[in-house]
């Protein structure tokens, strides 16, 4: 450490005492040490670049002696001793002691003039410092230039003489700036007056390494204005000076990497001639005024046998380097020919065909904060109570650009008023935004003049418009929304423009040539963009405000609810209608009415039905039939069903709640008894006209929320934490609420979208979006597009990328109000290429993440699908692969779905692009479908039996026909759809695949699953070579021809688990062999049978990514054991890909879980053991640590028809097990034995425990086993079960559903446990 200090002291004292020395860049820590941390005692004064401090020489060094000479300089200047520590006189002292050759009196006069000007330039008061024009006048530059030209030889000689040997000891981060002889050294020193920060030094080293080591010749350095490109290029120039510490040891003196280093500053025109002139000057060649071509030849000839580095700074247009005369760049044998350019534009690097483009990074935030603090001169700046936070905000706005930080930091020195800082921060936000967008070649003076003129014109235009608005008010007119928005924009831009113009004398010294040009463009756009219509006739209020007399959260809604209940309970009115805008809360109100009759005996039946847009008599009949559990044949017509409903209701008092009615529905044709008498029909609709069509005798208009209620609802959704994050956000939030016009659905959706957003720009952007995208409309005319969709589209547009938006739009293809199975939705996304990760599990993880984002944005809702986990597991062969738990799916709100369809059709600009007629049933009109114009058609869930052939041309890409009653004739109807890439025909009645299918040569996704009568696959299927996804699960296919699968080389996913699983097939071995040849496979679902199939699986399928596997009818006569381990199935890949494993009808006596390697099933979710008649025990491989390690993600375990199995103790510690079902295991007396371990770790995640018909079951488990997460418990037909394993200390407090039969067989040790369980809903559902 002492050596380090001594080295720096030596070097600094030589610099200060040697008159021939030039300034150097020193390390900051060293400068702090020698100035006592910049103490006031060492402060001498303040100059143009900052404060000046005294340095006292150390005693161990003495200044070098310089013999006294009589010289004219000594007569010109007085002795410095009388002037104390004035820095100017330190410079004079140096000149007095110089030992250079005799200078003429003219030289001395010039030097004296320069020193006098310099003394004025370092005065602390700005107004006392001379301007550039004054300096030019003072120096009389014309004569000086002449004298310099006349003494060119002398100056060159003097430069050569004063070249000195560099110091021996240098620190790594000090850049040497000693001048060198042009004739000997490769570069000319360029002064750098600032200390490079750490990140800049690292960048400098990186670029320098590329210059030396890269074989290519052209390097581009790009970055925004002020990031420090010029500073870094100068440092690069200086870094090649001999003796610089940044130069590797192999390139020290005697071995320079370049013969010449030429630094050129590009002029505005960037002309070849100007660059040639700079290079000729640097090479000391004579400029004969030759043509560009001749000059290029001279330069090229001179440099052809030289190594050179050209540093070209500030290039802003394409430059032909060959035309300049530079020889071919790159390493040519021992020669190195390199060019480095700096530019603001990355595209210019592309135009110049640079070999390596490097972006200059902005300063790190900590460096920016430190630099700004040093420029301010206040080490405690950021802890200042009034301005500390504002200073940090200003640094953040300046984007950590060094030039702006230094300039503005110096200007703000000594300013303590918060108002001054707030103004600067506000201006910086706007001007930095402009500066990022604009770069103008106009000179500052011209653009400022034009800006002032444009400001004047815009003020005049604004005054004229305001006068016209004021005149229009007297005639009952109002300003249009467009003109209001225009005026707001004009006011904002005029304010900023005035700030820019005033900055001509502003000490901030902004880069006005760039900023003013950007502002000029904005003002010109305002002038040209004035709307032609200024005022329009004012409309009467579209919504009447409802008085609020209650203190409830939404008193207007409570008032409407009370009015509705009064009509229902005490009025003779039969049909009541509520009408209002979509999303205003009609469904919520109807649900509240429905729930109000829970436990009320006023009506015998309260039936809630969602009619939806495609509502019909048949649909209402079906819904009523389901609610009342009425039975009729599928062939019954409307009239016979109506009679059935009539008979059921005629003696009953009922309330029919019809939600979302769009057209007239004949209620008498449905079967509703008329006259209604004491019964009621209550409907909601978006149209007042529908109320008349439905014979409504009393209508209620549900209006938008009043302002105060809208604000309260928005607060609830956006959160107080968000609103309190900044005082300004609450004001912006109120402005945003005003734009949503009190629409609850918009308030909820946008409120949740803005949750947690504390950036003011995000709020301002949201307000701008609402103002630009919305216009008022008449409620009765149902301007859904303007009033709802465009407002709700904000959440859609806020989704983070186009993939997420397309995933959202796809959800609208399913029927209205229907839950969507997660597996079906993800399969669709994967088939469309919206989700495409490296492996199938990655794709599913990504899809689940996207679903989470859509639900978080309130564009999807989580719902129950009605699909039961047990049903899927028990009948796996009847289904395609599903995600667990499949009871939970997603659903779209009907207004959100309408909006999605509207967006898919180009926001009404291309209504035929996407056609969705899903779930409309008898109302479907096939002939009305625009087959020739549509790109996507969804007709799923319609019970369609036939489609007529279409023979014209079409652009149809996607066709969804699942869940209909179509047979093989469908292929003839669609064979002309040759552009089709996605075809879903699952769940139909197709028995064979005809030849017409193979005309669809562009198919990538083909789903024929769940066509249970489909038994064969034709050989021509091999012709669909673009297929990526082939789904044949749930069919009865018994044979797949040879070389069909192997020809589908693009195949990624194939499902081959057929129904029923017990059907013999003879193609397993061949299929496995062909699957092994496919290189793009990501997932295979397959069933194998018998010992031969099992052996082929083990030996051949090692590389197949099997996702779902069914192993059936193994005999295993030699061992009577099945080894359930990764390596015994399909090799190591099974541990990474297997998702479901079903073992069915096998004859083993034992299942050995794991092996000596102990590799885990990382992805196994479902394990099913079905009809294993000889199985007595499931044990862990000796040495295996636990089931936790082998099955880290197993969530569903099903054991059924295993009559000899004793227990499942190994399952009690599965870390993720949620579903456990044990059925018809006659020998099982206890589910799991006592563990003897910590009870809190048993069944840590189990939610569903289902036990059916286990005749010998006497106990669930020992008392040390707990169920901390149990939600549902079903025990049916286990008659020997007397006690449950619960105590008051281990009660399952999350239990919500309990079904035990027979309940009376249970015995209780603690009545408190019995009392706890009896409070739950105890029902008997019978066998599943």
Dominant shape = globular
Structural class: alpha/beta
How confident overall, as mean pLDDT?
77
Give the beta-strand count.
37
Number of helices: 45
The fraction of residues in strands falls at 5-15%
Across the major sheet, the strand order is 19-20-21-22-23-24-25-26-27-29-31-33-34-35-36-37
What composes the largest sheet?
A: 16 strands, parallel
Radius of gyration from CA coordinates: 42 Å
| First-residue to last-residue Cα separation | 83 Å
- In percent, how helical is the residue content? 25-40%
Low confidence ranges:
1-7, 58-85, 96-103, 140-185, 245-254, 437-443, 539-551, 773-783, 1323-1328
Characterize the structure shown.
The structure is a single chain. The chain has 1328 residues and is an alpha/beta fold. It contains 45 helices and 37 strands. It has a 16-stranded parallel sheet with strand order 19-20-21-22-23-24-25-26-27-29-31-33-34-35-36-37. A hairpin with a 2-residue loop joins strand 1 (43-47) and strand 2. Helix 15 (365-376) packs parallel to helix 17 (402-411), helix 18 (418-437) crosses helix 21 and helix 35 (822-831) crosses helix 36. The longest helix has 30 residues, at 444-473. It is globular, with a radius of gyration of 42 Å. The two termini are 83 Å apart. The N terminus and C terminus are likely disordered.
Gist of the model:
37% of the residues lie in helices and 13% in strands. With 1328 residues, it is an alpha/beta fold.
Task: List the main descriptive attributes of the protein structure presented here.
1328 residues; alpha/beta; 16-stranded parallel beta sheet; 6-stranded mixed beta sheet; 45 helices; globular; disordered N terminus; disordered C terminus; P-loop_NTPase; nucleotide-binding
């Amino acid at each position: 450490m002492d050596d380090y200090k001594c080295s720096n002291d030596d070097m600094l004292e030589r610099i200060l005492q040697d008159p021939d020395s030039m300034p150097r860049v020193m390390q900051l820590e060293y400068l702090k040490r020698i100035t006592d941390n910049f103490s006031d005692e060492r402060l001498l004064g303040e100059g143009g670049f900052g404060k000046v401090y005294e340095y006292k020489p150390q005693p161990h060094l003495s200044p070098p002696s310089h013999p006294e000479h009589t010289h004219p300089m000594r007569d010109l200047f007085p002795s410095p001793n009388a002037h104390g520590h004035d820095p100017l006189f330190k410079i004079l002292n140096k000149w007095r002691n110089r030992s250079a050759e005799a200078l003429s009196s003219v030289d001395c006069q010039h030097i004296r003039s320069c020193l006098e000007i310099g003394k004025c330039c370092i005065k602390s008061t700005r107004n006392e410092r001379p301007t550039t024009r004054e300096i030019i006048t003072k120096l009389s530059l014309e004569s000086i230039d002449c004298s310099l030209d006349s003494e060119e030889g002398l100056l060159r000689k003097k430069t050569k003489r004063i070249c000195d040997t560099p110091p021996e000891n240098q620190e790594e981060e000090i850049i040497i700036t000693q001048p060198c002889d042009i004739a000997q050294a490769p570069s000319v020193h360029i002064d750098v007056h600032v200390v490079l920060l750490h990140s800049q030094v690292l960048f400098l080293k990186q670029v320098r390494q590329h210059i030396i080591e890269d074989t290519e010749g052209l390097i581009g350095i790009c970055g925004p204005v002020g990031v420090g490109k010029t500073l870094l290029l100068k440092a690069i120039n200086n870094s090649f000076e001999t003796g610089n510490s940044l130069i590797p040891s192999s390139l020290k003196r005697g071995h320079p990497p370049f013969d010449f280093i030429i630094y050129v500053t590009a002029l505005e025109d960037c002309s070849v001639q100007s660059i040639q002139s700079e290079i000729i000057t640097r090479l000391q060649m004579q400029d004969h005024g030759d043509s560009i071509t001749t000059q290029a030849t001279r330069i090229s000839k001179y440099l052809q046998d030289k190594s050179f580095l050209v540093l070209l700074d500030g290039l802003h247009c394409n430059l032909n380097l060959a035309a300049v005369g530079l020889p071919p760049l790159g390493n040519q044998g021992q020669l190195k020919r390199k060019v480095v350019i700096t530019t603001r534009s990355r595209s210019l690097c592309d135009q110049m065909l640079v070999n390596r483009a490097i972006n200059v990074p902005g300063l790190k935030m900590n460096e920016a904060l430190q630099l700004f603090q040093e420029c301010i001169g206040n080490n405690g700046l950021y802890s200042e109570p009034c301005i500390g936070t504002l200073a940090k905000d200003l640094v953040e706005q300046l984007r950590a650009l060094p030039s702006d930080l230094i300039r503005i930091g110096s200007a703000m020195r000594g300013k303590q008023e918060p108002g001054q800082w707030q103004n600067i921060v506000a201006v910086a936000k706007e001007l930095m935004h402009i500066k990022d967008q604009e770069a103008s070649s106009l000179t500052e003076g011209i653009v400022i003049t034009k800006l002032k003129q444009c400001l004047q014109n815009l003020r005049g235009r604004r005054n004229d418009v305001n006068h016209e608005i004021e005149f229009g008010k007297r005639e009952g007119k109002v300003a249009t929304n467009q003109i209001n928005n225009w005026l707001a924009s004009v006011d904002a831009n005029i304010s900023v423009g005035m700030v820019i113009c005033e900055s001509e004398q502003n000490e901030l010294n902004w880069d006005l040539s760039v900023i003013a040009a950007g502002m000029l463009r904005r003002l010109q756009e305002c002038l040209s963009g004035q709307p032609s219509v200024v005022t329009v006739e004012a409309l009467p209020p579209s919504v009447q405000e409802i008085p609020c007399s209650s203190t409830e959260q939404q008193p207007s809604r409570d008032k409407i609810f009370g009015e509705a209940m009064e009509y229902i309970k005490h009025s003779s009115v039969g049909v009541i209608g509520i009408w209002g805008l979509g999303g205003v809360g009609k469904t919520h109100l109807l649900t509240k009415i429905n729930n109000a009759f829970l436990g009320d005996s006023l009506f015998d039946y309260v039936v809630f039905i969602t009619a939806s847009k495609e509502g019909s008599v048949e649909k209402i009949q079906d819904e009523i039939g389901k609610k009342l559990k009425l039975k009729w044949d599928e062939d019954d017509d409307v009239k016979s069903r109506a009679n059935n409903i009539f008979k059921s209701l005629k003696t009953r008092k009922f309330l029919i709640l019809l939600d979302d009615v769009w057209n007239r529905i004949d209620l008498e044709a449905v079967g509703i008894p008329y006259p209604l008498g004491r019964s009621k029909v209550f409907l909601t609709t978006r149209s007042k006209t529908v109320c008349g069509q439905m014979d409504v005798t009393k209508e209620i208009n549900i209006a938008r929320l009043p302002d105060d209620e809208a604000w309260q609802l928005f607060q609830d959704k956006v959160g107080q934490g968000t609103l309190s994050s900044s005082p300004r956000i609450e004001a912006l939030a109120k402005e945003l609420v005003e734009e949503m016009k009190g629409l609850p659905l918009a308030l909820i959706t946008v409120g949740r979208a803005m949750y947690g957003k504390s950036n003011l720009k995000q709020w301002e952007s949201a307000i701008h979006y609402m103002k630009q995208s919305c216009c008022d409309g008449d409620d009765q005319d149902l301007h859904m597009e303007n009033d709802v969709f465009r407002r709700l589209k904000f959440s859609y547009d806020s989704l983070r990328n186009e993939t997420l938006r397309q995933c959202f739009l796809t959800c609208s293809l399913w029927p209205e109000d229907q839950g969507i199975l997660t597996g079906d939705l993800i399969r669709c996304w994967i088939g469309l290429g919206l989700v495409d990760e490296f492996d199938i599990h990655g794709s599913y993880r990504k899809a689940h993440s996207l679903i989470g984002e859509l639900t978080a944005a309130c564009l999807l809702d989580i719902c129950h699908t009605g699909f039961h986990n047990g049903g899927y597991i028990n009948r796996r062969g009847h289904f395609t692969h599903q995600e667990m738990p499949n009871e939970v799916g997603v659903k779209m709100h009907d207004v959100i779905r309408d909006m999605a369809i509207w967006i898919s059709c180009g926001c009404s600009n291309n209504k035929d692009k996407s056609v969705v007629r899903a779930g409309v049933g008898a109302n479907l009109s096939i002939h009305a479908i625009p087959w020739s114009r549509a790109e996507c058609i969804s007709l799923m869930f319609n019970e369609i039996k036939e489609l007529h052939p279409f023979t014209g041309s079409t652009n149809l890409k996607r066709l969804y026909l699942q869940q209909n009653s179509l047979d093989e004739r469908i292929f003839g109807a669609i064979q002309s759809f040759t552009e089709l890439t996605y075809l879903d025909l699952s769940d139909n009645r197709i028995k064979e695949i005809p030849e017409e299918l193979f005309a669809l040569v562009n198919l990538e996704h083909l789903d024929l699953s769940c066509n249970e009568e489909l038994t064969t696959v034709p050989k021509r299927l091999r012709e669909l070579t673009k297929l990526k996804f082939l789904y044949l699960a749930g069919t009865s296919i018994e044979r797949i021809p040879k070389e069909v699968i192997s020809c589908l080389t693009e195949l990624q996913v194939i499902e081959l688990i057929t129904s029923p699983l017990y059907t013999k097939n003879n193609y397993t071995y061949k299929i496995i062999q062909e699957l092994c040849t496919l290189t793009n496979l990501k997932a295979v679902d397959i069933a194998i049978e018998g010992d031969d199939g099992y052996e082929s699986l083990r030996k051949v399928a090692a590389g197949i990514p099997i996702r779902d596997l069914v192993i059936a009818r193994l005999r295993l006569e030699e061992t009577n054991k099945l080894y359930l381990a990764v390596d015994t199935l399909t090799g190591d890949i099974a541990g990474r890909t297997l998702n479901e494993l079903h073992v069915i009808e096998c004859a083993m006596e034992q299942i050995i879980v794991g092996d000596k390697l102990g590799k885990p099933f990382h992805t196994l979710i479902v394990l099913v053991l079905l009809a294993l008649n000889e199985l007595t025990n499931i044990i862990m491989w000796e040495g295996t640590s636990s089931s936790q390690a082998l099955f880290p993600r197993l969530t569903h375990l099903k054991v059924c028809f295993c009559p000899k199995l004793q227990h499942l103790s190994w399952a009690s510690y599965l870390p993720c097990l949620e579903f456990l079902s044990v059925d018809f295991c006659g020998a099982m007396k206890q589910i799991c034995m006592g563990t003897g371990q910590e009870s809190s770790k048993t069944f840590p995640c189990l939610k569903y425990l289902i036990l059916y018909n286990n005749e010998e079951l006497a106990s669930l488990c020992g008392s040390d086993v707990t169920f901390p997460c149990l939600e549902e418990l079903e025990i049916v037909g286990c008659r020997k079960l007397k006690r449950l394993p619960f105590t008051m200390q281990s009660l399952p407090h999350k239990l919500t559903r309990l079904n035990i039969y027979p309940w009376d067989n249970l015995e209780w040790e603690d009545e408190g446990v019995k009392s706890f369980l009896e409070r739950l809903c105890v029902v008997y559902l019978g066998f599943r």
